[in-house]
Design brief:
The complex is a heterodimer of chains A (339) and B (298).
Chain A: H1 2-29, H2 34-39, H3 46-56, H4 62-74, H5 88-123, H6 128-141, H7 145-159, H8 182-188, H9 194-229, H10 232-239, H11 244-282, H12 287-296, H13 300-328, H14 330-338
Chain B: H1 2-25, H2 27-44, H3 46-49, H4 87-123, H5 125-140, H6 143-154, H7 158-185, H8 188-195, H9 200-236, H10 248-254, H11 264-291, H12 293-296
Helix pairs in contact in B: 1-11, 2-4, 2-11, 4-5, 4-7, 4-9, 4-11, 5-7, 6-7, 7-9, 8-9, 9-10, 9-11, 10-11
The chains are: A mainly alpha (339), B mainly alpha (298).
Amino acid sequence: MFRFLINRLMLLVPVFIGVTVVSFGFIRVLPGDPVEILAGERGVSAEKRAEILANLGLDKPIWQQYFSYLSDVLHGDLGVSVKTNRPVVEEFFELFPATAELAICAIIFALIIGVPAGIIAALKRGTKIDQGIMGISLIGYSMPIFWWGLLLIILFSNTLNLTPVSGRLSFFFDVDPVTGFMLIDTLLSDEKGSFLNALHHLVLPTVVLGTIPLAVIARQTRSAMLEVLSEDYVRTARAKGLSTFRVVTIHALRNAMITVVTVIGLMVAILLSGAILTETIFGWPGIGKWIIFSIFARDYYAVQGGLLLIAITIMTVNLIVDLLYGFINPRILHQKNKS
Amino acid sequence: MNHSADSSKSTLSQQWQEFWFYFSVNKTAVAGLVFLILVIFMALFADVISPHEPAEQYRQFAKLPPAWKEGGQMQFFLGTDYAGRDMLSRIIHGSRLSLLAGCIVVILSLSIGVLLGLIAGYRGGWLEILIMRVMDTIMAVPGLLLALVLVAILGPGLLNAMMAIAITYTPYFVRLTRASTLSELNRDYVTASKMTGASSTRLMFVSILPNCMAPVIVQGTLSFSTAILDTAALGFLGMGAQAPTPEWGTLIAENRDLILNAPWTVTFPGIAILLAVLSINLVGDGLRDALDPKLKRS
């Protein structure tokens, strides 16, 4: 297990370096002179210009600049946001729980519906039920989610008046941020009804963000189940006279879950892409909305830092997923150690 | 000479017939194909089909509902937007941009990706390590975010959006091609070709490449549909095609404030995106089933 972990970490090193090169390069390839961007429209004298360049370390050769950037990154210093004058790292981790909460809820929503739907489709292969489930999941997979979000707002918020349009919690409630996860914080606080209110705010964004993962999970579960159901050990289990339910839940599902866990690993990048759109539509104060805001505000240090931190988040989650494999399927661990 | 040309022609048509046999079994895939061809026609003949000029503003008819609703008019079948522009015409013209974006993204990412994958798989060594680590880096950042950042560098616009999206799709083609190149590399036919003195270029492009194409084609159709979605998403966020251009995502963005009092201006462009993407995905599913040798046994 330990060697496996080390192997995986070693593989991440080049990717980490690659990502730092990209985020370092981002600011440098932007059109426009960095000093003039900082100085604004007033302009600067040649002396002042040299001084600013020296202050920013921009007078050094590019590889030295990169190494000092890398050293800053490793010390957790990602620069200061131009718009808010606060460290980028601080802003990121303040907003991160909102995105994490949304993404976790979305993936749970996708799993709760997607896995059973996929199993049913596999068991009823070729029937109308199978075709129906696969048809709906293909529609979900083809959905432009920003439009889907607007449709749901039209229907549930404006026509039926069931859900709020934006934000995480009504202004009526004053909840202390303890964990940053609104569902937990509202449970911890003594504000009555705040939990339900937070839940109401969460429903539509969860559905919107979870739609594509739901479709992918349903399709993957179906094909994984079909493969497993044709295996000998499942036939043996059936021959022993076990009920379909038992065969499916105990024998087949466990093996089919390997595929599903892989898919969840791949989902993280999709979820974060989706979060950019979902948070923009629902005014959700998370990373996605922040990074869009930063791009439009030309707050490049925020964009640079956000890019790096999001990539690190994805790498971390993928590492965890890789390790989870080992627990679900010891065979994988064994094979990888041998090679 | 003549004979061999004839026989290669007949195997090609045989292959085609076999492919069509497996593809046409899947009725939904055929339906998707038919719809896709319709959309392509719509895009090609947009000027002839659309009832109005997409940019023409009929101020006196602003925010007209669709024809079947009360107050709607037949001449503006899907209603008009805030400036009195005909929604149907704008959507028809938008199909051009979306299909074009999809095509360009796939052509760019597929050709660059296949070339790099082929080189990585065939050459190996430091070149392979370099190419694959660069691809890993691209994949470590969520596609839409990377595209947004690239557009921030290049400047907003449809062309830059397409290039940015193409870059985010390239790693998938590189990985696929490299994997199939590696598995083809030790086959007998490649060795035989090497023995007869074929050059590296010939080996790569004539011997190996055609045998790697099936998964690449499937990935190509999948990328085509996601490219349309991503182009629309960038347009929606204001980083893709710019406002007066009738790109589908941009249409939704410019009418977003009207979702309460003129919901059709948002609904129809979205349906257009959904149907176009859905039909491409249906075709993609059909292609995968028809090209996948594992499934042909049954």
